[in-house]
Amino acid sequence: MAIKLSKIINNWVPDDSKVIDFGCGDGSLLKELMDTKKVLGYGVEINDTKIQKCIAKGVPVIKQDIDLGINEFESSNFDLSIMARSIQCLKNPANALKGMLKLSKRCVVTLPNLGYWRCRLNILSGEMPVTPELPSSWYETENIHLCTIKDFEKLCVDENIKIKDKVFLNKKGDQSTFVSIKPNLLAVEGVYLLEK
Amino acid sequence: MKVRTELINFADGITLDSGDRLEKFELMIETYGELNESGSNAILLCHAFSGNHHAAGKNKESEIGWWDEIVGPNKAIDTDKYYVVCCNNLGGCGGSSGPTTINPSSEKPYGKNFPQISVKDWVNSQKMLMDKIGVPYWHLVAGGSLGGMQALEWAISYPNDIKKAGIFAAASNSSTQNIALNEVARESIRKDQNFHDGDYLEHNVIPKSGLKTARMLGHITYLSEELMDSRFGRRFQDEDSKVDQEVDFEVENYLQYKGEKFSESFDANSYILMTKAMDGYVAGQDIGLRDAMKNVKSQLLIVGFYSDWLYPPERGKEIQMAAMDNNINSSYIVLEGAHGHDSFLFSSEEYSKVISKFIES
């Protein structure tokens, strides 16, 4: 997954840029970008096991709860901040978005699409969606702010955030022209390049 | 594990940060493991204020080293793979030149006249040691508390001689509260009637009671409130094992015992010198931490512990922020740590894994 995502993000990341990845997991996305684009990357992660994996890969990592602060990284002059599949877990996604665009000119956000037809079917049948992309039941999930592609783009308009580029992924995690016809219904995931 | 102890002589002396000179000095060192042919596997351990060169394994007196949980065969700092060196810091009382050493010009112990040493001086003397024992560079310099300050200073002062720095439960300077607590400890030593303005050796006495009180205070600051609660609670000490009839609670007995033991082995002038060095340290004295770290080339691992209120994790984070401003490959981890400030001494699964993965990465 990280490799597929890094191929998309690759086009948006200039060589040698300074990148921060919020919710970096085991660091594989940053590792890819470090190897292919020579970026200087920092990951932010809260899970100790994932942190150990970052360190084993040589990916610099900071242990921090993203909900508690993004602003303090402002002095570091990042070129790009990334939040892959994490924004829906935050207490205040809109603040996080604004925060990311304060500490770097551009940011990449990826989010699972609650408008995906399988999710809609689940809801039509009267149940919260459980799909391969959203595998946890409602009482276990960390996803407290799920939204659809449409919802997210509306937030960007409301907050005056420019969508510079976007890519929609099918259930295999691949970029797909078919899915892009009606992303709010067909896309499993949206990948956005945002600018202030 | 073989524990080798050696006294290294520096006949050319050293010019100190203060401008003072020591015409000659000696460093007591301990080493474990073997230096490989390319010299790429050397690790320097820096001790905290009351530590010494005996970091791991058992010495001749059968004492266990201060970082034995972390350093040894198959441990986080693996002596089967790495050549590990630890020295007693200059000005200490573990065998290196310090206040109890004979001053060649007076033929009496230096006592209070031993020049004030700084963290920079320690790092400079450790660099001289590195050259002397044929280590081309350190793969890692690591330490906790005051030892972490030395690891940070290594990265700043000798960017070409160190690949990685492990900075644990430390800060880029001592806080106001750190200085305040140290001053209470020093005051108790100075006001001991046997201190004799630092000339106690000439009077053939030691300011034992002052040292003991200082250490008791120190111990409180090294532990967390939670640990003290769980370890001692409000339990009363058994009559049979009381170190002192005045003692009621277990925690009192513990502090009395630890203080007493320390006061028998630690030199009072060293105590004052070491704490003064700690209080006086400011990474990037004149230019600030951010600019001071401009030339750092090594990777950093900064570890803080939630239960540490003496050098709380936020102090480590300051170093991380300055590192990121300077595009340094630096990681900052916070662990629970069951032991307060002392947590850096003890192994836990997360702590050991993070250290070993950092070394190997």
What does this protein look like?
- The complex is a heterodimer of chains A (196) and B (361).
- Chain A has 196 residues and is an alpha/beta fold.
- In chain A, 34% of the residues lie in helices and 23% in strands.
- Chain A is built from 8 helices and 7 strands, in the order αβαβαββαβααβααβ.
- In chain A, helix 1 (2-10) crosses helix 2.
- Chain A is globular.
- Chain B is of the alpha/beta class.
- Chain B has 2 domains: 3-173 and 281-360, 3-Layer(aba) Sandwich (Rossmann fold), CATH 3.40.50; 178-275, Rna Polymerase Sigma Factor, Chain: A.
- In chain B, the strands form 4 sheets. Chain B has an 8-stranded mixed β-sheet with strand order 1-4-8-5-11-12-13-14, sandwiched between helices.
- The mean pLDDT of chain B is 96.
- The interface between A and B is medium-sized, with 20 and 21 residues.
**Biggest pleated-sheet summary of chain B:** 8 strands, mixed
Question: Main sheet of chain A: which strands, in order across?
Answer: 3-2-1-4-5-7-6
- Estimate nothing, just give the exact number of structural domains of chain B: 2
Q: What is the general shape of chain B? A: globular
